[in-house]
Amino acid sequence: MAGIYLHIPFCRQACHYCNFHFSTSLNRKNDFIPALLKEMQLRKDYTGGEPIETIYFGGGTPSLLETDELNPIIDRLHTLFPVAPGAEITLEANPDDINAPKLREWRKAGVNRLSIGVQSFFDEDLRWMNRAHDAGQAASCIEMAQREGFGNISIDLIYGGPTLPDGNWKANVDRAVGTGIPHLSCYALTVEPRTALDTMIQRQKKQDVSPEDQARQFLLLMDWTAAAGYEHYEISNFAVPGKRSRHNSSYWQGKTYLGLGPSAHSFNGKSREWNLANNAKYIAAEGSAIAELEVLTPVQQLNEYIMISLRTSEGCSVSEIIRRFGAAAAREFEKNAGAYILSGRMRRVDDRLQLTREGKLLADGIASELFFEPSHVDL
Ligand code: SF4
């Protein structure tokens, strides 16, 4: 089973915190679609004929696509790839693009899951982030999508910003849970280098984020979502049973995925490829857009497994390390994890080493401490 990710590199306006690849100039959209179709054709063998279980339109803002742009893309995917019956087809949508006719068209095209970039139900927060939508649109779009028959909806929420006191954070989570949507993705606001937010903070035009506020709001989030019946199945993702994102789960399980469009990554278990992150160059490349290919060494594959699996609720399987990397690597990993078990940041459950609630606060830091140096182990 494999997945396909399509990067739609256009946005209506630039959110201050964003470091994804996108352009706010939409005038290349017409040339982008043929280039994407061409890339699809040229790379149709990447997934080796495996059934395509998930398709994910991300970005950028895929909800900016018109129906006569989206339909040919989905039609071509079905022509070129063995899309499995019941495949999960997700479209990321922003609240300001959502309306009843568009929702109907998306459903007709085969989209069966929406990931909506709500971020907050408060205007003050949305303005601070420079989102293109307002609180009214954030609130109404979910109900509208449900009315049009979308049951499988996820929304993104951002916490830890200076305009979000704990009370508003609780109101955001309560509101999301109250809509009955089965999936939430919640991210701590990160100040990425060279973003508008970074510059504004450095020039003291915006208040910086507080790591203490972020940690506290993450702990609160874990309590609230657990009480509402959501499984915390990945550091940033929460789902009611049976409604995990199949697409994102396949990344975390190391399955093959093909990434199409500017800046998209592809992965086949052994190597990773990156597409050009420039719309004009991507279009000019006429489908041959791979800018970089990295063949992962066994140590890199092991470190990637540690990083990704520790972020999931299942954790890191010792028998999987033995199977893929040998018993010596597993013994060294268990020895290194011992200190985190003693400090209460990790626990052992049968074959698996998992992060505890306190450990989840430091997920990426703990994973990188457990990484193997190339010289340390003979894999
Ligand atoms: S809509 Fe999404 S991709 Fe576009 S600028 Fe905002 S956060 Fe970034």
Q: Could you outline the blueprint of secondary structure elements for this entry?
A:
Elements: E1 2-8, H1 29-42, E2 52-59, H2 67-80, E3 83-93, H3 100-109, E4 113-119, H4 123-129, H5 135-147, E5 153-159, H6 166-178, E6 183-188, H7 196-202, H8 211-227, E7 231-234, E8 237-239, H9 246-252, E9 257-260, E10 265-267, E11 271-275, H10 279-284, E12 290-295, H11 298-310, E13 316-317, H12 318-325, H13 327-342, E14 346-349, E15 352-355, H14 357-360, H15 363-369
Parallel strand pairs: 1-2, 1-9, 2-3, 3-4, 4-5, 5-6
Antiparallel strand pairs: 6-8, 7-8, 10-11, 11-12, 13-15, 14-15
The protein binds iron/sulfur cluster.
Order of helix and strand elements from N to C terminus: EHEHEHEHHEHEHHEEHEEEHEHEHHEEHH
Cα gyration radius (Å): 21 Å
Mean pLDDT: 96
Q: What is the number of strand segments? A: 15
Q: What name is given to the CATH topology of the largest domain?
A: TIM Barrel
In the predicted model, the low-confidence regions spanning at least 5 consecutive residues are none
Which structural class should the secondary elements be placed in?
alpha/beta
The largest sheet, given as strand count, sense and whether it forms a barrel, is:
9 strands, mixed
- How many distinct folded domains? 2
Q: What helical percentage do the residues reach?
A: 40-55%
Q: What's the CATH class label of the largest domain?
A: Alpha Beta
What name goes with the CATH superfamily of the largest domain?
Answer: Aldolase class I
What small-molecule ligands were found?
iron/sulfur cluster
Strand order of the largest sheet: 7-8-6-5-4-3-2-1-9
CATH architecture annotation name of the largest domain: Alpha-Beta Barrel
How much of the residues is beta strand, in percent?
Answer: 15-25%
